[in-house]
Design goal:
Blueprint: H1 2-6, H2 12-34, H3 37-56, H4 60-78, H5 81-84, H6 88-110, H7 124-153, H8 161-184
Length: 192
């Protein structure tokens, strides 16, 4: 995995993916200078997530989609888009859970925990089921974090039972779609 991370970009799309990682870092710096510590903190939480595809060695097209989704989710908090755009949270729960579940599955492949889609005898249903389960688990953890934030940090975090269940259902649907995509489309680099 270190080799993947240190490998220089070889295509224009790999340069774009790395440029988006740089945008993530510059976002934290900009928020630190021109916004609040909370905004900088929110954006900094995205930084480790932005590096994961580089370590795993995913295709640059998936890497770009992943970067855009994670950065959009982080900036949506800073710009308060979740409150100002109807159903924005559902769109982001769907897309963010989808890319995070897919990348989680690929990370587990790298650690030889889940079956590699490149191997003979790979069952597509395995990816569909496991990516969906990973997404549902991530959705549950995220909703617990929201609840902790609401209960112990600020009551400005919107938490209701219907919102929690809706977010988890939409996240589960996003991860199901990601599982289907991963079952039929190669998301990792052939040389990774």
């Amino acid at each position: 995995m270190i080799e993947n991370f240190l490998r220089p970009p070889r295509t224009v799309s790999e340069v774009i993916a790395d440029a988006l990682r740089l945008v993530g870092l510059l976002s934290v710096i900009a928020a630190s200078i021109w916004s609040t510590a909370t905004d900088a903190g929110i954006l900094s939480l995205a930084l480790p997530a932005l590096l994961v595809p580089r370590f795993i060695g995913v295709r640059s097209s998936f890497d770009i989609v992943y970067q855009v989704v994670v950065l959009t989710a982080a900036w949506s908090n800073v710009l308060d888009l979740y409150r100002t755009i109807d159903n924005w949270d559902l769109i982001l729960h769907f897309s963010c859970t989808a890319v995070l579940a897919a990348i989680s599955y690929l990370a587990l492949v790298r650690f030889s925990i889940t079956p590699d889609p490149r191997t003979e005898g790979f069952a597509r249903r395995t990816a569909i089921v496991l990516v969906t389960v990973l997404g549902l688990a991530a959705s549950a953890v995220w909703e617990m974090i929201e609840w902790v934030g609401y209960a112990f940090i600020t009551d400005e975090i919107f938490v209701t039972y219907p919102d929690t269940i809706g977010d988890m259902a939409v996240g589960g649907l996003g991860s199901l779609v990601a599982g289907i995509v991963l079952a039929f489309v190669r998301l990792d680099r052939p040389d990774a």
